[in-house]
Amino acid sequence: MAADLDVLNLFIIAGGTLAIPILAFVASFIFWPSALIKVYYWYWRRTLGLQVRYADCGGYRFCYSCRGKPGMRPSILMLHGFSAHKDTWLTVVKYLPRHLHIVCVDMPGHEGTTRTSTEDYSIQGQVRRIHQVHGRGLCKPARYTLPLQSPCARSPQFVKSIGINRKPFHLVGTSMGGTVAGVYAACHPAEICSITLICPFGTTHPCETKFDNHLQDLEQSNFTLNIPLIPTTPDEMEDMFRLCSHVRFKIPQQILQGLVDVQQPHITFFQEVFMEIFGEKSRYALQEHLHLITAPLQVIWGKQDQVVDVSGAAVIAEALSGCRVDLLDNCGHSVVMERPCRTAKLILDFIIAQQNASGGAKKSS
């Protein structure tokens, strides 16, 4: 009889132990979906071996995640898009070899990186800020002088770096991050060995998109209408996914609400950044700097992009001979989310091809 009671107690304890995390999950899903989303990102960073670190730069703090150490292959610096964060790249990092040195940074003002009311969040301002964190101390004099307002103009000195540019690295950017990456490569060519731009804006494109029409309506209303890339309700969040993705993801209403809750405290900031990057100063920043890009360039674009039309790839390829263009079928603007495995393979193949070409050129010389 005593043995039966022990077995019964064991089952009760085991059942209770299992029930606690299940109930916690259900409660989080229903009442705190935003907390569940944060736990999800934490879990995947841990699973993929990414560590979150901070770089303090003269009172300004950058938050980034990293994996691996510099080796034979170039380090990879990844810049996310508008209103996103470093964890945007988790789906791609999953398919990249673990021995590669990868750094995913929160862009200025985003997620864990410092946000200030006096910061310049234009494309040019973000280039200056990103370069500042990756600089290596005092800047050597340039061969020619650029005006201070130019994103290519160097600050009198750079803050302590994380060391990624001890040798030329591969730079990857998507959407807004792609525009920043392109302008960065144009302004600091000695630091870049190759570059991948994924659906970047900042160029003219012959064909208009659904987002272009929204942008025209916004300008005519003096930006009083809701911005489709800054959702404030679950329905608007779902509309944004439809706009950015050709693949139709089935996202539960509670998760949509959680995504809105995560963004809600940052709405005013996102509106400020949106006005900056789509303002006169930044709207065609990439186009204006294409002729200065000297590093081997790869462009990846979804053929069904409704935010920045795929015809922009041809514009870039026409400006830069030798540019590699990879167009993805049945894919929209959210290439990183819709085609992560394919994206990782294309980036890795491009890096290896450039290294092989560079090695062959050195042998022949």
Automatic annotation (TrEMBL):
Family matches, as InterPro entries: AB_hydrolase_1 (IPR000073), AB_hydrolase_fold (IPR029058), AB_hydrolase_sf (IPR050266)
Domain AB hydrolase-1 residues, every copy: 74-340
GO molecular function: monoacylglycerol lipase activity
Gene Ontology cellular component list: AMPA glutamate receptor complex
Membrane-crossing residue ranges in chain numbering: 7-32
Classification via Pfam families: Abhydrolase_1
GO biological process, alphabetically ordered: acylglycerol catabolic process
Gene3D superfamilies: alpha/beta hydrolase
Keywords assigned: Membrane, Transmembrane, Transmembrane helix
Family: Belongs to the AB hydrolase superfamily.
Protein name (record): Monoacylglycerol lipase ABHD6b isoform X1
Organism: Betta splendens (Siamese fighting fish)
Lineage start: Eukaryota, Metazoa, Chordata, Craniata, Vertebrata
